[in-house]
């Protein structure tokens, strides 16, 4: 539907034009105005696509009305109508951006021809706008994919050396020098909160949201220099926790890692944030890693933290001999220090919970380990702890044993066939039934490359083939191979091929 406004101080002129237009064009909505003042008022409510404006009218004339309407509705088009075909009128019309000029009385055929050309112009512009909007919407979805994948790469030690900076640039978000990570634990089935959490982070300041892995959602937060670190973190934590309903807030908890000054160190903050969630039964539903009590007795706080970090790495690497040795050493330390048995069991419970969390993060689905009863002595505590560790190890090994030998080939084939789309680790995970983190881990371990590197290679190879067709523009090729920004495509292509797309194409057609 095209909205058209007829402006003329002669009723008979307006009615005659409306009859001609309705007879020759479909899908029109027509309004009338008897002078410039009324035209301005009607335009404010009607927002016409096209205005046929008489020039000479009492009060506010045609050119003045055009000027006022264009201020609020710059995309509205105007055809000036007058009984005087003078050069001065034509020059003023052109100066104001009027698309055409019609002398009355005009032949019906001339009226239809002039207005038909403008209607075609309006339709063409609408199609361009719709295409641009579709591309913008698609780009926003792609940026969301980029964001979660950048977080995954940064936090899980699979940083893509070539494209991380370009991905960060595409997110178009101010990155401060200092950053920290918050790990949000959610109740089972809380995926519905994901968009609201993202919105809370956006409103509170600058941050990247990772993918939801089981119950855990990692958030990289950029420091606000106008607030202290603790003030900023507490404010954001409280904002997020307002989303928890009173009947399910027991499942919500936020661990907060320390501040670091580079993206390379952000993984350390993530590990700290996850360690800070080891006791979720606190009355306050967030905790700073720096506030954690010493887990290992008999050593200073810094050494104890290093001990925890090392244990974290053993879990990630599946080093079960080291995990068992660490837990055994810890029990011996507690016993030697004469620590209360119930307190020791609680500390071990937190440590085993951490093992289960990291395993869940890697795609090993397992319930949190629980001691079936309160131990009566250290011997019994050792035995039951070893039993729980054996169960965790068994789940880990069964997951590896059940992993089909062709899983990587299945992932590769899926990427090759869908390289032109916005493929994310989450989407691949749904296809092959594995967690995004685990996919990233096994992909790099078995192929020696990051999955984004492989995806990029697939896209660039396809682009090279398409460049052989001289009829295809580089912009068309950009979208066809899966990118949404020709400038970004050009940067990636140049880094991969050591030549810009234009240079590469010139060489193959030389």
TrEMBL record:
The modification 4-aspartylphosphate is found at residue 54. Residues 409-507 form the HTH araC/xylS-type domain. The keyword Cytoplasm does not apply. The keyword Membrane does not apply. It comes from the Bacteria. One of its GO terms (biological process) is phosphorelay signal transduction system. Residues 3-119 form the Response regulatory domain. GO terms for molecular function: DNA-binding transcription factor activity; sequence-specific DNA binding. Keywords: DNA-binding, Phosphoprotein, Transcription, Transcription regulation. This is Response regulator. It comes from Aquibacillus halophilus.
């Amino acid at each position: 539907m095209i909205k058209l406004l007829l402006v003329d101080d002669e009723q008979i002129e307006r009615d005659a034009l409306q009859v001609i237009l309705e007879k020759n064009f479909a899908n029109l909505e027509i309004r009338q105005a008897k002078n410039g003042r009324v035209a301005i008022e009607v335009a404010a409510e009607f927002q016409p696509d096209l205005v046929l404006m008489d020039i000479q009218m009492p009060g506010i004339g045609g050119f003045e009305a055009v000027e006022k309407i264009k201020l609020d509705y710059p995309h509205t088009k105007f055809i000036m109508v007058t009984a005087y075909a003078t050069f001065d009128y034509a020059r003023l019309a052109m100066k104001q951006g009027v698309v055409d000029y019609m002398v009355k009385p005009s032949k019906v055929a001339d009226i239809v021809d002039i207005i038909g050309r403008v209607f075609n112009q309006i339709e063409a512009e609408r199609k361009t706008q719709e295409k641009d909007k579709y591309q913008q919407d698609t780009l926003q979805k792609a940026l969301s994919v980029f964001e979660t994948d950048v977080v995954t790469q940064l936090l899980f030690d699979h940083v893509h050396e070539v494209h991380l900076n370009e991905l960060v640039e595409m997110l178009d978000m101010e990155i401060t020098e200092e950053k920290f990570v918050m790990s949000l634990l959610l109740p089972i089935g809380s995926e519905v909160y994901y968009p609201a959490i993202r919105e809370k982070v956006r409103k509170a300041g600058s941050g990247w949201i990772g993918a939801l892995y089981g119950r855990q959602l990692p958030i990289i937060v950029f420091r606000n220099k106008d607030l202290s670190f603790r003030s900023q973190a507490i404010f954001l934590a409280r904002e997020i926790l307002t989303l928890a309903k009173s009947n399910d807030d027991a499942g919500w908890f936020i661990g907060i890692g320390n501040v670091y000054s580079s993206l390379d160190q952000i993984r350390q903050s993530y590990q700290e944030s996850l360690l800070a969630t080891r006791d979720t039964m606190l009355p306050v539903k967030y905790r700073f890693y720096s506030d954690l009590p010493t887990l290992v007795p008999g050593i200073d706080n810094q050494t104890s933290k290093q001990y925890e970090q090392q244990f974290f790495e053993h879990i990630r690497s599946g080093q079960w001999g080291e995990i068992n040795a660490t837990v055994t050493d810890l029990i011996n330390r507690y016993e030697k220090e004469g620590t209360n048995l119930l307190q020791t069991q609680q500390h071990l419970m937190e440590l085993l919970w951490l093992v289960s969390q990291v395993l869940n993060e890697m795609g090993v689905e397992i319930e949190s380990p629980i001691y079936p009863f309160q131990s009566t002595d250290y011997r019994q505590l050792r035995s039951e702890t070893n039993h729980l560790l054996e169960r965790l190890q068994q789940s880990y090994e069964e997951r590896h044993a059940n992993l089909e030998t062709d899983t990587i080939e299945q992932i590769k084939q899926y990427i090759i066939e869908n390289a032109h789309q916005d493929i994310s680790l989450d989407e691949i995970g749904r296809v092959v039934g594995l967690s995004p983190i685990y996919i990233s881990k096994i992909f790099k371990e078995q192929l020696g490359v990051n999955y984004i590197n492989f995806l990029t290679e697939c896209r660039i190879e396809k682009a090279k083939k398409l460049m052989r067709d001289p009829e295809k523009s580089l912009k068309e090729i950009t979208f066809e191979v899966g990118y949404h920004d020709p400038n970004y495509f050009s940067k990636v292509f140049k880094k991969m091929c050591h030549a810009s797309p234009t240079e590469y194409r010139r060489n193959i057609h030389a």
